[in-house]
Amino acid sequence: MDLYEKYQLTRIINACGKMTHLAGAAVLPPIAAQATAALPDFFDLDELQKRAGAVIAEATGAEWGCVTACTAAGITLGIAACMTGADRGKIAQLPETAGMANEVVIQRGHLVNFGAPITQTIRLSGARVVEVGTVNDTEEYHLENALSEHTAAVVFVVSHHTTRSGSVSLERVVEIAHARNIPVVVDGAAQSFLIRRIVEAGVDLAICSNHKYLSGTTAGIACGRRDLVEAVALQSRGIGRPMKVGKEGIFGAMAALEYRMQLDVGAWQKEQDRKMHHIIDRLAPLPGVAMRVEPDPNGNPFSRARLDLNAEATGINAQTLAYALADGDPSIRLRAHHAEEGYVQIDAIEMTDADVELTCERIQALLEASPEAKQMLNERYAGTTIPSQWSWLGSAPGQMRHITGV
Question: In 129-216, which ranges are continuous DSSP H helix?
Fold first, then answer.
């Protein structure tokens, strides 16, 4: 079945990575098979979550685990669990938090927007956010001063979106919080390769995505202290009800973790590097282009091809290049977080060899176009923006807005 044809959808070549606005990841066949096998049948979801808890514990090294609807849901429910524990009365009371420790401390350099602000995701539980430090300078004394009997948890974000320096490390956050018997919750959405390391840092709850580098069905994986994880699961009787995960999400998460446990990560990384280096070799000879390897900033076992564009030499800038590729058919979505700085990244993990070749051909054609054609592109995309700042290439062709006078 061709769903693009059936519903007249835009065909996408994903050179951006595991992005929610591009529907997460291509689900691997054995994971899809297990999720599909679950669809016709009925299960006791509490029993299923217990089985999933054992698989998550084995895969992550945590005491226990549960499956949530996504990482964002896991953060909301994790904060709720820190406030209520297993107290059914408090669970029923949320999002009203009277009588509970309800403050959540987070460093300002971790105030990311992953499609929604993390502060909003925390506040959905009923908690109050306490921001500490400045964007690029949070000291231990800032954190220590913010902790009190009203503190329910400290949130730590592991992401390329956080500031790269000027924050208190995870290890020190754990030490400082635990000295006051305050739990630490980690948003590690795209960090499934690092989840064991995060757990080993002593955090109380860590959440990662099942539909990013685990290449599974849409779900989140919460792991950590057993009592806290069980309190997360209990939120389904309260504010977690609108965030419930279905059988296909739970079975998909179990299958994804089982697949990861038997994956030869070194061989997987070698295959990703092969595609990346082919892109670099293919595009490096183009005038005005500088190519290099860009390692993952969080230390995951993959790198991306970085393309720096000399706009004066090429006649178009990195933003125009990214927009023009996105407006094509198929729509090629580069990783364009830094396009305004003059460079883009090409993430080949979700690309086939055919996708890689077509992407390189399109880039070469744009850069070798006539001066007149480039001028038309520059004029077409001048002042272009879209409503969603966090996924600025998330719109289908034809949906971008042109703002005059910008």
Answer: 140-146, 170-178, 195-200
pLDDT-derived band of residue 394, with 50, 70 and 90 as boundaries?
A: very low
In tens, the pLDDT along 56-98 reads 999 999 999 999 999 999 999 999 999 999 999 999 999 999 9
Instruction: Single out the residue in 228, 262, 296 at which a domain terminates.
Output: 262
Yes or no: say if 291 and 284 are a contact pair by the CB < 8 Å rule.
Answer: yes
Identify the bridge partners of residue 24 per DSSP, sorted by sequence position: 19
**pLDDT(382) > 60:** yes
Same domain, 241 and 293: no
Q: Which residues of 270-304 are buried (b: 16+ CB within 10 A; e: fewer)?
A: eebeebbebbbebbeebeebebeebebeeebbbbb
Which residues is 130 bridged to in the sheet?
105
Domain that residue 190 falls in: 30-262
Examine the domain organization and report whether 294 and 173 are in the same domain: no
- Specify the pTM: 0.92
DSSP three-state, residue 108 = helix
The DSSP element (H or E) to which 332 belongs, if any, is strand 331-334
Pairwise CA distance, residues 284 & 265, whole Å: 28
Mean pLDDT estimate for the chain: 93
Is residue 75 within 8 Å of 185, Cβ to Cβ? yes
Asked if residue 24 belongs to a domain, the reply is no
- Who has greater pLDDT, 381 or 208? 208
CATH of the domain at 397: 3.90.1150.10
Q: Which residues contact 57 (CB under 8 A, 6 or more apart)?
A: 63, 64, 65, 223
Measure the CA–CA gap between 153 and 177, rounded to whole angstroms: 8
| 270 and 244 part of one domain | no
Q: For the chain, how many structural domains are there in total?
A: 2
In the sheet that holds 184-187, the strands lie side by side as: 64-68, 220-224, 205-209, 184-187, 151-157, 103-107, 128-132
Tokens of 279: 């892109």
Structure tokens, 296: 């993952």
Choose one of 262, 291, 308: the last residue of a domain.
262
Mean pLDDT in residue range 40-60: 98
Residue ranges of E strands in 340-398: 343-346, 384-385
Percent of the chain with pLDDT over 90: 91
Q: What is the pLDDT of residue 51?
A: 98
Distance CA 18, CA 383 (A): 27
404 pLDDT tier (thresholds 50, 70, 90)? very low
Question: Phi and psi of 155, rounded to 5°?
Answer: -105, 135
